[in-house]
Amino acid sequence: MKLWMRSLTVGIFAIAVAGAFSGAHACWTDQPLGKADYAAADIVFEGIPVAVHPTFKPLNPQLLKAINQRSKHKRPHNDQVTEFDISFEVSRVLRGELTDKVIRVGWIHGTFGYPRSHDEFVQRYGDELRVGLTTYNLYQQMCPVKPTWNTRGGEAPKKEMRRSCDVMYTGFFQYEGQDETKPFILNAPCSGPYMLPLDSDEDGMATL
Prior knowledge:
Elements: H1 8-21, H2 35-40, E1 43-58, H3 61-70, E2 79-95, E3 102-106, H4 118-125, E4 129-134, H5 136-142, E5 145-150, E6 158-163, E7 184-185, E8 195-197
Antiparallel strand pairs: 1-2, 1-4, 2-3, 4-7, 4-8, 5-6
């Protein structure tokens, strides 16, 4: 499978939709990660999820009403998860370098559905996982600065130097002007995360 080829515009649209309709299944299709995506992670480790750190934000009542009117199933909660971090106890590093025994990583879910508790997370994904991460270094490699046409409304098109991503993973959106040290779970828009059981060989790295 080819690497995810997404324009920055499409990616920003996906994240904007995620912010407004988190949990509302805004993605029409769920495309699984491929071998090239698994190979792109610059850090891969095995570990135990010891805690989750969701940030909840109340939904606008009018937005909640609109979501419930358009969906077959009413939302069980009147808030949404806007940020989600996970703390892992690292047992083995398979690719890249990690110095801390316990690390906290960010996760932007490409299909807009976050577990709301540690128990729910473990129920969905398991209690011992192989996890792939993206970092600022990977973002720099996959989103190089190059001449790009600027087509702002009301202005004549012109070329300017800016980052342009041919390969898009959701964590990349957090690096522009924000925390450049934080790793994120590799996740492509409208796909699942690089979090696998240890006996899975989807990424060719099964150790059990």
